[in-house]
Design a protein that fits this description.
This protein folds into 2 domains: about 1-40; about 65-160, 2-Layer Sandwich (Alpha-Beta Plaits). The protein has helices spanning about 1-35, 80-85, 125; strands at about 65, 70-75, 90-100, 105-115, 135, 150, 160. It is about 25% helix and about 20% strand. The strands form 3 sheets. The chain has a 3-stranded antiparallel sheet, with no helix packed on it. The chain is of the alpha+beta class. About 15% of the residues are buried. The protein is elongated, with a radius of gyration of 27 Å.
């Protein structure tokens, strides 16, 4: 019985060596192909190709608050994005203003984004009922001071886009 288990362990030993050598040969075949045909390499040569570098459409870079050409944004300070954020990287600071109809409404004062805490999960973008948020393709965030990763997303003196007539579909911003 001891002889049988010894033979099995020796067989397993040589089988693992064979599997390792075949795996190595498979990887070396891919490397050899790239060595012979360098035009088929798909690796991006960053940072040398910054001018021509294209990111994927679904890449999640830095969070941005969409603004129109008239410095108007679509955020109504509902705070859904901040509630959905799993680690609290969004702060929506709002204030109350009286509208032309005499009613008070909540207006965005500051939209603060903590890039250093963001996990880029995208829950904030999905939670936004006004489609005011999106991810940009900006990915270079190396800074010496961590405070530079805290950003105010609403532009100075920006205001919310006034609601159009009721014929407009809900949740579709007009740019």
């Amino acid at each position: 019985m001891a002889l049988l288990t010894t033979l099995k362990s020796i067989g397993n030993y040589f089988r693992e060596i064979y599997n390792g050598v075949t795996s190595l040969a498979r990887g070396m075949r891919v490397t050899g192909k790239y060595f012979i045909q360098p035009s088929s390499i798909v690796t991006q040569q960053y940072p040398e190709n910054r001018a021509t570098l294209k990111m994927f459409d679904n890449f999640k870079g830095e969070l941005i608050l969409k603004h129109t050409e008239d410095n108007e944004h679509f955020c109504d300070a509902c705070n859904n994005c901040a509630r959905k954020c799993p680690n609290g990287s969004i702060e929506v600071i709002s204030k109350r203003e009286e509208g032309p109809d005499g009613k008070t409404r909540r207006v965005l004062d500051k939209y603060i984004y903590h890039l250093d805490m963001c996990t880029f999960c995208g829950l904030c973008v999905q939670a936004c009922d006004q489609s005011a948020l999106e991810f940009s393709n900006e990915f270079e965030h190396a800074v010496f001071d961590r405070n530079n990763l805290i950003k105010q997303l609403n532009h100075p003196d920006s205001k919310v886009v006034e609601k159009q007539a009721e014929t407009k579909e809900p949740n579709t911003p007009t740019v």
